[in-house]
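New here. Your pick:
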Amino acid sequence: MKELIREKAPYILTALMADKGEYGEIFFEDLKSLTLNLEDNKIEKVNSGRDTGVGLRLIKNFKTNYGYTSDLTYENLLNLAKTLAKYEGEGKIAVGKSHYVGKTEVLIDPDEFDIRKKKDILERANEIARSYDERIKQVSVTLRDVKRDILIINSLGEIVEDHQVRVVFFVEAIASDGTSLYRGYEATGGSVGYELFNEDFIDIVDYVATKAAERAVLGLKAKPAPAGSFTVVMSSHAGGTMIHEAVGHGLEADLVNQGLSVYKGKLGQKVASDLVTVIDDGTLKGKNGSFTFDDEGVPAQRKVLIDNGVLVGYMYDRLTAMKEGKQSTGNGRRDGYKNIPIVRMTNTYIDAGKDNPSDIIKDTKDGIYVVKMGGGQVNTVNGDFVFEIIEGYRIENGEITYPIKGATLIGNGPQALMDIDAVGYDLGWAIGTCGKDGQRAPVSDAQPTVRIKRLTLGGVL
């Protein structure tokens, strides 16, 4: 099918651009995925799928006409192009001026890793999590691998291919003491093959399963979180959930252009502590949000967004860049050929600082130590956020004392960035799937240990 697309691209693009659009594009995707899930001590689901299709996009007067199909005959694609163009004629295009090919470098291809070994990974994780403590009552283990082959041919003369591979693995454990339940969760993975697991896959499987079970049991003995205003130390183990949600989305150019970002009109202004530098980098090897080319054929890039507290840039896809007379930053991503590309983060993080993480805790007399964040909500218009704390502790007189539960962090993104007064030299990563406009995208986020002078903790009064 890919060869047919290459061969017929000039005719399809000519029809698509017939009514003098600014930009036309053919997006081909061939997605193979395998998901295995274990629950109740047995493999519950084995979902294997393949989805192949084409999306055609026409940008005219900064508006998008989009159509997609899984019927990849030339006649159907040509008719779709004519429908989007709404005109019978000939458009001006360039074809094949440049050709780029990228791929995820992996050592063990998902297709070459025996499914029995994949089953062994799930069963071992289940065994390790359940054996951690008799109070572990439920365990869910998921292993997913994806191979994604994309081809982009556009009216600028660019032909771009990218062959992407991802493997993710996560464990959820539920502990109960007869009166209450608590959930523990841990995940790993990224743009890697099955080399993610070592030869006997014990180390990483045991770590993820043990950590999930440990968090679940810890929650049973944790004390109800106090309510009020506290100094908050966020561990590097927390990943960059806060920076992704409370700050990152507000730096996506589509939200900025729509007036839905608190950072609109603030380029060159101080928006964070001098200690804070925020970066989005899709080039990092092995990370979950990495790729060679984005879903518009633009190379992945490293973008400094906030530099020592000063806002220096936003993230762009082709459309938002066209509107502002700029270049795309390689942040055009889509949840498959059925969707238009939109501005999305890749791997977003607060850069490491110079402080010793242990000294940050010792220097905090009364506060909260956050080790793992959960879900939350953010209002990008004003930056207000609410986040769940999955694993947290009380800090008293510079020491971590007892675990807390039932806690939420409440604050404002820009104000929280301004209130950071210590940044560690460690840097911890987490993986996730980001949702926006009904689309999903694999991402990573990270931060070092940071201290925020004041946030509101929702707990028990």
